[in-house]
Amino acid sequence: MQGTDCSAPSKMRSFTVNQNDAGQRLDKFITKTVRGLPQSLLYKFIRTKRIKVDGKRAHEGDILTAGAVVEMYIPEEFFGEKAASVEYDRVKLVPQIVYEDENVILCDKKPGILVHVGDEGDKNTADAHERETLLFALQAYMVKKGEYDPAAENSFAPALCNRIDRNTGGIVIFAKNAAALRILNEAIRDGKVHKKYLCAVHGKTGAGALLTGYLRKDYKTKTVTVFKEMKPGAKEIRTKYTTLSYNREKDLSLLEVELLTGRTHQIRAHMAYAGYPLLGEGKYAHNKEDRKSGYSYQALYSWKLAFEGLEDTPLANLMGREFTVDKGNIGFLELFREGQYKSKK
């Protein structure tokens, strides 16, 4: 790093590892705690014993335990100031809670709300538009309840476990502590978190079907393409749907969809490829007439959530239950007669 005299005397700072810090590698902990420290210098400081654990020489792969003290003898310029809790007082967005306990919040995100600003930036230091994201609103909610003090945390901030597109609504999972975050992220990776969606599509779809194909993501255009057969760079997709209702006048079907694989824009792209584009779809179908009717974004809602495989974890109480959003929050259901959009077993 230019302009930095790494050999200059440095004031020692120490950090006591708490429960939210425990279980991670030393280098990961430092990266999150000292955000201004370049990776190259991080490893150099560990090698030259300017970063120690409990007063002893440490290695980047050491796993930290609660109560351990990480000592850093490095220039002060690398330590940024932590966000003040007062930032959270400015949040206007009030999250709608579906379920909450000491470890997790299930929140109903409305279409049009941004989940977070992306991977860039420090999500603990937000400007005006960042404060209106769901992530920051949920952190503010915890601050107001006295369950989260950003100044007291070294490397952890309550975080979202899944993402939903800005114009898609539905249940978002929020972990209050590091242990819950690790458990939920692992459950999602292992396919033990089951989500069902409601969507309105153009056309009469029949009773239901299992759609298969292959999907390839274009990172430049932020879109995906679906193929019938395998193509280079593509991944298998399986989309299962059940038809719940049909609006004959508007030729619209109401579907409950289950993703058997979880890919970017899978429902939107797969249904359009099958000839049943979502009402309001803008990326994978033309929706000029939909816009005239007042539907300017995709009629898609992640409305039901269930968990498995959480035995012998602090989240075992989530098993054996189905969590659903209030159907009154799903605007496109008004297009279908009451009583015909109950989930079929």
How would you describe this protein?
By secondary structure, the chain is α+β, with helices and mostly antiparallel strands. The chain has 3 domains: 12-78, RNA-binding S4 domain (Structural Genomics Hypothetical 15.5 Kd Protein In mrcA-pckA Intergenic Region, Chain A); 85-189, Pseudouridine synthase (2-Layer Sandwich); 193-335, Pseudouridine synthase, CATH 3.30.2350.10. 16% of the residues lie in helices and 27% in strands. The chain contains 6 helices and 15 strands. The chain has helices at residues 26-33, 39-47, 134-145, 178-189, 266-273, 288-292; strands at residues 12-16, 51-53, 56-57, 69-73, 96-100, 104-109, 159-160, 169-175, 193-202, 208-218, 223-227, 235-247, 252-259, 300-307, 322-324. Strands 5, 6, 7, 8, 9, 10, 11, 12, 13, 14 and 15 form an 11-stranded mixed β-sheet that branches. Strands 1-4-2-3 form a 4-stranded antiparallel β-sheet. The longest helix has 12 residues, at 134-145. It is elongated. Residues 119-128 have low confidence and may be disordered.
Quick one: CATH class of the largest domain?
Alpha Beta
H/I helix tally: 6
Mean pLDDT metric = 88
Task: Name the beta content range.
Answer: 25-35%
Question: What portion of residues is helical?
Answer: 10-25%
Task: Supply Rg.
Answer: 24 Å
